Amino acid sequence: MHHFTHRDGDLFAEDVPLARIAAEVGTPVYVYSDATLRRHARVFQDAFAGARALAAFSVKANSNLAVLRTLFEEGMGADVVSGGELMRALKAGLSGNKIVFSGVGKTAEELKLALEAGVHMFNVESENELLVLDAVARDLGVRAPLAFRVNPDVAAGGHEKISTGKAEDKFGVAWSRARRAYEKAARLSGIEIRGVDVHIGSQITELAPFEAAFQRVAGLVRDLRADGHTIDRIDLGGGLGISYDGNTEGEGAPPGPADYAALIRRIADPLGVELIFEPGRMIAGNAGLLLTRAIYVKEGEARRFLILDAAMNDLIRPALYEASHGIEPVQAPQQGAGYGRYDVVGPVCETGDRFASERELPAMAEGDLFAIMSAGAYGAVQASQYNSRPLVPEVLVRGEAFHVIRRRPSFDEMVALEGLPPWLEART
After folding, report:
1. Rounded distance, CA 328 to CA 304, Å?
2. In which domain, by residue range, is 246 found?
3. Could you tell me if 188 and 209 lie in one domain?
4. Which of 226, 349, 417, 424 is catalytic?
5. Is 338 within 8 Å of 208 (Cβ atoms)?
6. What is the C-alpha to C-alpha distance for residues 5 and 327, in angstroms, rounded to an integer?
7. Same structural domain for residues 212 and 121?
8. 212 part of the active site
9. pTM of the predicted model over 0.85
10. pLDDT, tens only, 321-359
11. How far apart are CA 395 and CA 391, in angstroms?
12. Backbone angles phi, psi at 154, to 5 degrees
């Protein structure tokens, strides 16, 4: 579900024509829908109505302060994986007790910052990290609420680079070492054992991997309680996939929050625990698009290229994960204009700077506007200034209004952090 619709041949974000945003802000530009963000937040949380549950939005999916504030207004918490993401969540107005700190390489400085903020829980990924967290907590005179992230050796995710729950992945404590890790944690005065954490991947479009992992975790909870540990929280991670091709019902469509919640509650309700989730993509993914303009239509020897002003540095998912996004013309084509096949590419000097191959589109012309759909998650957050291209601005739409929530930097701002050493300074 999203609030990007065609009206009289023009594509709108809520009640704002995208052509107007392109004219006033320029392209490329990310555009987010306030209504879609809020609806997705409500639908996910409503699926767990009556349960003790914290839906902690995965900040890595979209860390813009305005997006975070919007979701926090809807009651969501935050899952963070760095000190910077922690500070963003706090700056966006969230209290520390609704923040979960995950991540495989937390530093002592980051752990101190999180303890001072009073985060809800630390998802600890190794026994080495456990010892650092204990030392930092003792120095501060507090106890750190802990869950170990355990690796259930369950393969899942839309691409090998976003599958995180297999034995060979870098994440989590090995399943065979989990009970030993909890035994070690119980002996440390700076640690308060509270829960178990699991996260098996991203863009998961079927429920079977979730069930396999969660059943294993439920068994571990029972074992840990038998060992004398207090386990009153389970963090079941995120990973629920979205449709990138518009298929939201029927065969091949990702499961919705209601089916996901029914599965989890069947397994977790008998344990009497607080449930923690880390949804990211399913909240923000279809709430955003990348608005871009055609620079050239180029006839190659064997292919026709549609060269956009957006590039892989703006949206890296197709190059990095071989991801496929819907591409829609902002203005409907003239009747009888016909269709053609295009390689949709950007201007960056990399062959991998490609959004689609042999994509069938209406006959396109230079200057036409396009929307690369489902770009609200893992889009702007992964952007770079490769080829010295400025970071893409971001716009939030609400009804008939829109606001630039991150502006495009100037060239001087792009190079402001750089400086010449004395021997290269110009001599006068």
Report:
1. 17
2. 103-277
3. yes
4. 349
5. no
6. 13
7. yes
8. no
9. yes
10. 888 999 999 998 777 778 899 999 999 999 999 999 999
11. 13
12. -120, 120
